[in-house]
Amino acid sequence: MAVRLFEGKDHASSYLQYRVAPHEMVSVIMSYIEKRKPKRSELAVDVGCGPGQVTVLLAPYFNKVVGTDVSQAMIDRALAKSNPPNTSYRQSPAEELPFTAGEVDLVTAMTAAHWFDRPRFLQEADRVLRPGGCLALLSYTMDMNLEYGDVSDALNDICQEVRYKS
Question: Boundaries of each Methyltransferase type domain copy (predicted)?
C-alpha cells in the first residue's frame, strides 16, 4: 500500500503553508544578491530548468536568463510556452555548461541538483561564475553534503545556516 500523506485538511494546510514555492525562493535569492550587488546583473543560468518554471521568474532581475537541461524534451516544453524576450534555453548537461569562464552572475538549480554529478557540477559552476557570483541550490532534502576542494565545510555550513534560518 502506498503511503498516503496530506489527505486531511490540516495536513494539506500545513503542506501548503510550509512548502517553498519557486517565486518565494527567487525572492530570497534576489534579496541576497541585491544586498551585495545593487545594480542589475547581466546573466543568470537555471541549470536543470525542466519546463522553465524558475527560469522565467529570474527574467525581471537579469539582462539575460538561460535555462539549461540535459533533456531536449524539457527544453521543447520550455520553448513551447510564452517566455520573456530576455529568456532562452539550451540543451546541456549540468556538468558541461555552454558558457565561458567567469561569464555568469547567478547559477541556480531548483530541485535538480540531486540528479547531477555534484563534484563535477560544483566545479563547473565555479568555472562559469564571475568573482562574487552566486550559486543557489534548492533541494527536496538537506541530506546531501557538498564537496568542493577546501571549501566543502564552508559550503555545508552555509546550507545548514539557510536550512535553520528558514
Answer: 45-136
